[in-house]
Design brief:
Layout: H1 5-23, H2 36-48, H3 54-65, H4 74-80
Length: 85
């Protein structure tokens, strides 16, 4: 079967457009958002216990919650903690 050049170019453009539409679609990814209650708890612990660092807060929360939160690491606590003034 022989195609006209304009039909072949039209197919190519349509395929190119579909590919980039698929490639640039919005994807749900990344780390899940931290619950505002948990964020406030970390900040309150940081405020009330100024000598504690992120690893200590992480350890205390692991004991307090009685299970390991999938989103919570020592680095997460460090980013949420209030900076000393």
């Amino acid at each position: 079967m022989i195609f006209k050049p304009d039909i072949l170019v039209r197919w190519h453009r349509k395929g190119f457009r579909l590919y980039w539409t698929w490639k640039s679609r919005r994807r749900q990814g990344g780390r899940p958002a931290i619950d505002p209650y948990d964020r406030e708890l970390i900040q309150r612990m940081s405020r009330n216990n100024t000598g504690w660092g992120a690893p200590r807060i992480h350890g205390e929360l692991k004991m307090l919650v009685c299970h390991d939160l999938p989103w919570f690491t020592s680095m997460t606590a460090q980013h949420i903690m209030l900076k000393p003034v």
